[in-house]
Amino acid sequence: MNLSEQADLRGQLHSADDTVCEAAAVTLGQQGESGLAVLADLLVSAEPDLRFWAVRGLWANASPEAVTLLIQTLSDQEEMVRSGAALALGELKAEPAVPGLAHLLRADPTESGSHAADALAKIGLPAAPVLIEALQAEQPWVRVRAARALVPLESKAAIPSLFHALDDDSYMVRHHAEAALARLGVGQMVYFPV
Asked: Are 129 and 140 in contact (CB under 8 A)?
Protein backbone atom coordinates (compact mmCIF):
# COMPACT_ATOMS: atom_id res chain seq x y z
CA MET A 1 0.00 0.00 0.00
CA ASN A 2 1.53 3.29 -1.09
CA LEU A 3 1.34 6.61 0.76
CA SER A 4 -1.42 7.92 -1.50
CA GLU A 5 -3.61 4.89 -0.76
CA GLN A 6 -2.91 5.27 2.97
CA ALA A 7 -3.88 8.93 2.84
CA ASP A 8 -7.08 8.07 0.96
CA LEU A 9 -8.07 5.47 3.56
CA ARG A 10 -7.29 7.86 6.41
CA GLY A 11 -9.49 10.44 4.72
CA GLN A 12 -12.35 7.94 4.49
CA LEU A 13 -12.23 7.54 8.28
CA HIS A 14 -13.61 11.09 8.54
CA SER A 15 -16.75 10.13 6.60
CA ALA A 16 -20.16 10.58 8.20
CA ASP A 17 -21.05 7.14 6.84
CA ASP A 18 -20.07 4.40 9.30
CA THR A 19 -20.03 1.81 6.52
CA VAL A 20 -17.33 3.79 4.68
CA CYS A 21 -15.34 4.24 7.90
CA GLU A 22 -15.50 0.58 8.79
CA ALA A 23 -14.47 -0.52 5.31
CA ALA A 24 -11.47 1.82 5.41
CA ALA A 25 -10.48 0.66 8.89
CA VAL A 26 -10.72 -3.01 7.93
CA THR A 27 -8.73 -2.39 4.75
CA LEU A 28 -5.99 -0.69 6.77
CA GLY A 29 -5.98 -3.60 9.18
CA GLN A 30 -5.57 -6.07 6.35
CA GLN A 31 -2.49 -4.27 5.00
CA GLY A 32 -0.10 -5.90 7.45
CA GLU A 33 2.71 -3.84 8.94
CA SER A 34 2.12 -0.74 6.82
CA GLY A 35 -1.54 -0.61 7.84
CA LEU A 36 -0.63 -1.37 11.44
CA ALA A 37 1.65 1.68 11.53
CA VAL A 38 -1.20 3.91 10.33
CA LEU A 39 -3.60 2.43 12.90
CA ALA A 40 -1.05 2.89 15.71
CA ASP A 41 -0.73 6.52 14.69
CA LEU A 42 -4.52 6.94 14.73
CA LEU A 43 -4.69 5.59 18.29
CA VAL A 44 -3.05 8.78 19.56
CA SER A 45 -5.44 11.06 17.68
CA ALA A 46 -7.33 13.68 19.68
CA GLU A 47 -10.49 12.56 17.87
CA PRO A 48 -12.27 9.68 19.66
CA ASP A 49 -13.95 8.56 16.42
CA LEU A 50 -10.56 8.04 14.76
CA ARG A 51 -9.32 6.06 17.77
CA PHE A 52 -12.49 3.95 17.60
CA TRP A 53 -11.96 3.16 13.92
CA ALA A 54 -8.30 2.39 14.63
CA VAL A 55 -9.52 -0.23 17.10
CA ARG A 56 -11.71 -1.75 14.38
CA GLY A 57 -8.72 -1.89 12.06
CA LEU A 58 -6.56 -3.53 14.72
CA TRP A 59 -9.23 -6.19 15.17
CA ALA A 60 -9.07 -6.89 11.43
CA ASN A 61 -5.27 -7.03 11.62
CA ALA A 62 -5.32 -9.57 14.48
CA SER A 63 -1.52 -9.77 14.74
CA PRO A 64 0.24 -10.04 18.12
CA GLU A 65 1.28 -6.41 17.66
CA ALA A 66 -2.36 -5.41 17.09
CA VAL A 67 -3.38 -7.30 20.24
CA THR A 68 -0.73 -5.41 22.22
CA LEU A 69 -2.09 -2.08 20.93
CA LEU A 70 -5.66 -3.14 21.74
CA ILE A 71 -4.64 -4.03 25.30
CA GLN A 72 -3.08 -0.58 25.71
CA THR A 73 -6.29 0.96 24.40
CA LEU A 74 -8.30 -0.55 27.28
CA SER A 75 -7.23 2.53 29.24
CA ASP A 76 -8.42 5.06 26.63
CA GLN A 77 -10.30 8.02 28.11
CA GLU A 78 -13.30 7.46 25.82
CA GLU A 79 -15.80 4.75 26.75
CA MET A 80 -16.62 3.74 23.17
CA VAL A 81 -12.93 3.22 22.42
CA ARG A 82 -12.38 1.10 25.56
CA SER A 83 -15.53 -0.89 24.75
CA GLY A 84 -14.41 -1.45 21.16
CA ALA A 85 -11.01 -2.66 22.32
CA ALA A 86 -12.59 -5.03 24.86
CA LEU A 87 -14.98 -6.47 22.29
CA ALA A 88 -12.19 -6.91 19.73
CA LEU A 89 -9.97 -8.69 22.25
CA GLY A 90 -12.82 -11.02 23.12
CA GLU A 91 -13.50 -11.84 19.48
CA LEU A 92 -9.78 -12.49 18.98
CA LYS A 93 -9.78 -14.71 22.11
CA ALA A 94 -6.64 -12.85 23.14
CA GLU A 95 -5.35 -14.59 26.27
CA PRO A 96 -2.65 -11.93 26.86
CA ALA A 97 -5.51 -9.45 27.40
CA VAL A 98 -6.92 -11.25 30.44
CA PRO A 99 -5.21 -9.04 33.10
CA GLY A 100 -6.18 -5.80 31.33
CA LEU A 101 -9.76 -6.96 30.79
CA ALA A 102 -9.99 -8.08 34.42
CA HIS A 103 -8.87 -4.63 35.55
CA LEU A 104 -11.44 -2.96 33.28
CA LEU A 105 -14.18 -5.28 34.56
CA ARG A 106 -13.42 -4.32 38.16
CA ALA A 107 -12.53 -0.63 37.78
CA ASP A 108 -14.91 0.68 35.12
CA PRO A 109 -18.59 1.03 36.11
CA THR A 110 -19.56 1.99 32.53
CA GLU A 111 -20.50 -0.33 29.67
CA SER A 112 -16.79 -0.77 28.98
CA GLY A 113 -16.53 -2.88 32.12
CA SER A 114 -19.47 -5.01 30.99
CA HIS A 115 -17.85 -5.47 27.60
CA ALA A 116 -14.66 -6.54 29.37
CA ALA A 117 -16.66 -9.26 31.16
CA ASP A 118 -18.13 -10.37 27.84
CA ALA A 119 -14.63 -10.51 26.35
CA LEU A 120 -13.36 -12.62 29.24
CA ALA A 121 -16.26 -15.03 28.70
CA LYS A 122 -15.27 -15.35 25.02
CA ILE A 123 -11.62 -15.96 25.90
CA GLY A 124 -12.84 -18.90 27.94
CA LEU A 125 -11.21 -21.01 30.63
CA PRO A 126 -7.94 -19.00 30.75
CA ALA A 127 -10.09 -16.16 32.14
CA ALA A 128 -11.75 -18.29 34.85
CA PRO A 129 -9.30 -17.44 37.69
CA VAL A 130 -9.79 -13.66 37.35
CA LEU A 131 -13.56 -14.08 37.11
CA ILE A 132 -13.62 -16.30 40.21
CA GLU A 133 -11.62 -13.62 42.03
CA ALA A 134 -13.99 -10.88 40.81
CA LEU A 135 -16.88 -12.87 42.27
CA GLN A 136 -15.54 -11.78 45.68
CA ALA A 137 -15.47 -8.05 44.85
CA GLU A 138 -17.08 -5.55 47.18
CA GLN A 139 -19.09 -3.86 44.41
CA PRO A 140 -22.21 -5.82 43.42
CA TRP A 141 -21.92 -4.74 39.77
CA VAL A 142 -18.50 -6.39 39.57
CA ARG A 143 -19.86 -9.61 41.07
CA VAL A 144 -22.81 -9.58 38.64
CA ARG A 145 -20.46 -9.22 35.67
CA ALA A 146 -18.19 -11.98 36.92
CA ALA A 147 -21.06 -14.39 37.60
CA ARG A 148 -22.58 -13.70 34.18
CA ALA A 149 -19.23 -14.25 32.44
CA LEU A 150 -18.72 -17.55 34.25
CA VAL A 151 -21.95 -19.04 32.84
CA PRO A 152 -20.57 -20.06 29.40
CA LEU A 153 -17.13 -21.03 30.74
CA GLU A 154 -18.22 -24.24 32.46
CA SER A 155 -15.25 -23.96 34.80
CA LYS A 156 -15.15 -26.73 37.40
CA ALA A 157 -12.71 -24.60 39.39
CA ALA A 158 -15.49 -22.03 39.82
CA ILE A 159 -17.95 -24.44 41.44
CA PRO A 160 -17.12 -23.63 45.10
CA SER A 161 -17.25 -19.88 44.45
CA LEU A 162 -20.49 -20.22 42.50
CA PHE A 163 -22.08 -22.13 45.39
CA HIS A 164 -20.94 -19.38 47.74
CA ALA A 165 -22.48 -16.82 45.34
CA LEU A 166 -25.89 -18.47 45.80
CA ASP A 167 -26.02 -16.55 49.10
CA ASP A 168 -25.03 -13.21 47.55
CA ASP A 169 -27.09 -10.13 48.45
CA SER A 170 -27.61 -9.42 44.75
CA TYR A 171 -30.40 -11.30 43.01
CA MET A 172 -28.53 -11.01 39.70
CA VAL A 173 -25.40 -12.62 41.15
CA ARG A 174 -27.51 -15.47 42.53
CA HIS A 175 -29.34 -15.82 39.20
CA HIS A 176 -26.13 -16.07 37.15
CA ALA A 177 -24.50 -18.39 39.71
CA GLU A 178 -27.48 -20.74 39.45
CA ALA A 179 -27.28 -20.63 35.65
CA ALA A 180 -23.54 -21.37 35.72
CA LEU A 181 -24.00 -24.29 38.10
CA ALA A 182 -26.88 -25.68 36.04
CA ARG A 183 -24.75 -25.49 32.91
CA LEU A 184 -22.08 -27.44 34.72
CA GLY A 185 -24.71 -30.04 35.56
CA VAL A 186 -24.34 -29.35 39.25
CA GLY A 187 -27.55 -27.46 39.95
CA GLN A 188 -28.62 -27.25 43.57
CA MET A 189 -27.09 -30.58 44.60
CA VAL A 190 -24.73 -30.69 47.52
CA TYR A 191 -21.14 -30.27 46.43
CA PHE A 192 -18.22 -31.52 48.49
CA PRO A 193 -14.79 -30.34 47.30
CA VAL A 194 -12.25 -33.12 47.01
From this structure: no
Handedness of CA 99, 133, 103, 90 (dihedral sign): positive
pLDDT tens-digit readout, 55-100? 999 999 999 999 999 999 999 999 999 999 999 999 999 999 999 9
Q: What is the pTM of this model?
A: 0.90
What 25-31 contacts at long range (C-beta under 8 Å, 24+ apart), as own/partner pairs, is 25/53, 25/54, 25/56, 25/57, 25/60, 26/56, 26/57, 26/60, 28/57, 28/60, 29/56, 29/57, 29/58, 29/59, 29/60, 29/61, 29/62, 29/66, 30/60, 30/61, 31/1
Long-range contacts, stretch 151-154, CB < 8 angstroms, 24+ apart: 151/121, 151/176, 151/179, 151/180, 151/183, 152/121, 152/183, 153/121, 153/124, 153/125, 153/127, 153/128, 153/180, 154/180, 154/183, 154/184
